[in-house]
UniProtKB/TrEMBL annotation:
Keywords: Chaperone, Isomerase, Periplasm, Rotamase, Signal. It comes from the Bacteria. GO terms for molecular function: peptidyl-prolyl cis-trans isomerase activity. Residues 200-298 form the PpiC domain. The keyword Transmembrane does not apply. This is Parvulin-like PPIase. PROSITE patterns: PPIC_PPIASE_1 (PS01096), PPIC_PPIASE_2 (PS50198).
Amino acid sequence: MVKDYTSLKNCINYTAIVKTRKKRSAMMNRTCFNLMISLLFTGFFLLPLTASAQGVMRIAAVVNDDVISALDLAQRVRLTIVTSRMQDSPQVRKRLASNILKLMIDERLKAQEAKKLGFGASDDEIKNGLVGYAQSQKIKPEMLVPFLNKIGVDIEVLEDQAIAEITWTKMLTRRGGERTRVSEKEVDDAFAQIQANKGKPEYLYSEIFIPVEAPSQDGAARQMSERLIGHIQNGSPFAALARDFSQSPSAANGGKLGWVQSGSISANIEAALQAIEEGGYSPVLRTQSGYYILQLHKMRISGQEEDDEILDVAQAVLPFAPNMAEDLRNAKRAAARNLAYEAQSCDNLVELAKKIEGGLGSRFANVKLSSMPGDIRTVLKPLRANQITTHEQKNKAVLVLMVCERKPVPKTPDIAKKKRLKQHLRMEKIGRENRRILQRLRRNAFVDIRL
């Protein structure tokens, strides 16, 4: 038995620690796997283990001939808690563990299928994936490893995740065939539809998608979605949760989609978007394929971008203090009116604002009118260069805004628009292919969850 214990410990060390960077693989050595299974059946894991050995050797799940260790799972949970700014408590860790384990099982299935079909990830591709992750977390790439070390997460946790996504994406894009190919006719038809829909709303939004592939999964999927809403309400970034939990192709981009036109999305999703204020998010939304959580960034009228302008703007901000008395608010309003009367130029407005107690002055260059908050956009739209106005944001501040310069946005050639449209249509097809193949892999897989 001592010999078996030593062999098993070496196997797990081989799997969890001694993976070389030249030959990365999520697949466990077959001999070690058989040894583990045989020892499990003989009751080996019922024997007392030291705390450290037990932490390393405990199995969270077996996926075909691959093992997810409890250590791997614990590190992924820790990483999600930190990057999503969740409260770290035993209750939160326990709730997250089951959901994250399901994602890790899918990652193993993806990596196994891609490897079986001959797709791999080069060191440069993995490095680029890690750089992209660091940038998404606003971490300098060279600081990623120190960041992970500080929170107790091994870099291989991210490397394994990157390998699964890189190889899976290669497989989908190169073997999808007709199911992922977008014809020129499809692009032309979609472009004609967009042209016909000018004057209708279009939306810039992000999504978190939790699929429901069978009626038995509905309760768990809804519960997970409701918990994600709770994390958003508690301050977790929407993009971080989308990257960690969404099952849509947009997850890699923090759930963010490009501009989507009315008629190109389902009626219930559009209705939900229309009910959200810019910057807000929806409640859990049930659709035919699963549950969505939506975050609306901007809404505009299609074709409006063709009349868009680029503005240079100066502003003075006179903030209201919490629970400020009305007479003090009136004094702020009077000061704003005086500023608007006295300012002779954009630079002068900024200088005068800084002389007022609590006042802030700043200048913004090359900002698209369409990208500004709706209330600011409405105020600035009729102003010509060097015109000034005041605007009050309820319970926040009174603003003095001056247009320094405005110029039209350069027109985007139709060929560039069609290129972006083709990419969007292809991503939709890849998303459907992703779900189709993953459903098949799940049905045919041997998965044994031990936790």
